[in-house]
Amino acid sequence: MGRRRKRKPLPAEPVEAEIESLTHDGKGVAHIDGKATFVYGSLPGERVRFIYTGRRRRYDEGRVVEVLEPSAQRTEPRCSQFGICGGCSLQHQKPEAQVAGKQQAMLDALKHIGKVIPDEILSPLVGESVWGYRRKARLGVRYVPKKGGTLVGFRERGSSFVAAIDRCHILHPRVGDLLPELSALIDQLSIRDQIPQIEMAMGDDDCILIFRMLSPPSEEDLRKLAIFGPQHKLAIYLQQGGPETIRPLDFEATPLNYSLPVFDLQLSFLPSDFTQVNSDINRRMISRAISLLELEADDRVLDLFCGLGNFTLPLARTADHVTGVEGDGGLVARARENAIDNAIENVAFYTANLYESLENEPWLMHRFNKVLLDPPRSGAQEVLEHLPKLGAARIVYVSCYPGTLARDAGILVHEEGYRLLSAGVMDMFPHTAHVESIALFERR
Known about the structure:
CATH 2.40.50.140, MeTrfase_TrmA_CS, 28% strand, RNA binding, 22 strands, S-adenosyl-L-methionine, 444 residues, 23S rRNA (uracil(1939)-C(5))-methyltransferase RlmD
């Protein structure tokens, strides 16, 4: 057996570099002696000094210690813990530059992975504000006596430790401004070292915090939580096991809902349900998707990965009939309830695992001239072969990961007979490297 080569020790002194581009996760790219080096905290066009933080066979990693020549894209991060906290990776870049970079990342993925280029690049969808937008989040909790007590927030970048932040600027202020009070509350509990996580779920009006507990709370703990909730206009829920154990502290459920005013809709959801984190962008995204589909009164639409009806019910306001399909039975139940609550009758919902064989699914026996796809990060590859057979002339694909969008776009264009008419990004997660996009396909 050959001997493993010893890795060279990391240089102790800072190194100077020119930053050439940005990776998909927001790190600057430099080449040192011909080897790619990903430098956190840098931007394209900058000259920086950085220290090495890691070495791999094919690339190295580093962190900026000084910006010698700043990019015109650079701005002062709002958060004092930027670079430590893992919640954001792009606060040092101007918002318009972030969006342009995400647009280019999507186009690069389409070109290099899918071997496709859209006929038209859609203007990016951006919200009214890039701050305080996040209405769903999982916050880490850790009792650290050496740091003065309990820390509540996002975890440190590349670490399981919780970042010490007093205020989170991307969370909705109802929670983002409340981190010190949450820390003080948990410090007073008997099980302060048995609470690893708080999950935030917020509708248009009400906000729920779910406290994950590894040990049962005492009566005094419950009393303190019961006081804290109303004091800060929050509903407190407890979770002492899996998701099925989530329950309101006072045993009275708090209804969560969000409105889609353009479509005269109000959708209800449970705190553990998947919903979009950015309500402003969600509304704009739905309107754009429906506009791209060019809906008409006689259209029959298939909405795959439909969730609780986020697209299905707005589609039904115009189309003749909409069929929604989703793998999570709980979300399907919520979608049906939302249809009833909004007096929408021209919809049908089915539960089906869209990553398994679909040959016996009843909805596949029908014809659909238009399709909306909104898959998770893994994409929609398994369902694509069915779309031409169903009669889909126009497809809108909503994506949360450009790599799988590009892969699936390549299949639709090169194997299934479609043309990529347009594509663009939506700034669902400002200050992060997350890329949400939308694409339109038409049958040739």
